[in-house]
Amino acid sequence: MSAASAHTAGILLLTLVAVAYGGAFVLRVTRGSVPATDFQHRSFRAGHAHAGVFVILGVLCQLLVDRAVLGPGAEVLARQGVPLAAILVPAAFFLSAAGRGRERPSRWILLLWPGVLCLTAGLVSLGVGLLRA
């Protein structure tokens, strides 16, 4: 494993502590300890789920990127695309639902699209690089 992969994977694994804390928050919402609308409840669950899945996928990508045949730009996309999506997509869900009694997403939901773009670019770059290897 390259130093860059180990460094990024280490950071991603440490962020799982924040994801676990987010899970505790979602559990408080689910149990009714934190008042939330149905929309907020669904958005918080979606944000938490996407964060966990994308962080683990980001760790997996770090293991694979060293085996891929990539140019410098494609390597950056393959290494950082999924981790950026792990920030942007959950942020879209959490921030768009923030606020007392919110029933519809705020403009923060627009963060979803750059997150999807990062996810797609990272996975396509890595997939093509692995097929070239």
Characteristics of this structure?
133 residues, mainly alpha
What is the terminal-to-terminal distance? Answer: 16 Å
Order of helices and strands: HHHH
The count of β-strands is 0
Helical residue percent? over 70%
Q: Specify the structural class.
A: mainly alpha
Assembly type of the chains comes to: single chain
Structural domain count: 1
Rg (C-alpha, Å) = 16 Å
Shape: elongated
Rounded average pLDDT? 94
Spans where pLDDT lies below 50 across 5 or more residues: none
Largest sheet: none
| Count of separate DSSP helical elements | 4
Assess the beta-strand content as a share of residues.
under 5%
How would you describe this structure to a colleague?
The protein has 133 residues and is mostly helical. It has one domain. It is built from four helices and no strands. The longest helix is centred in the first third of the chain and has 29 residues. Keywords: Membrane, Transmembrane, Transmembrane helix.
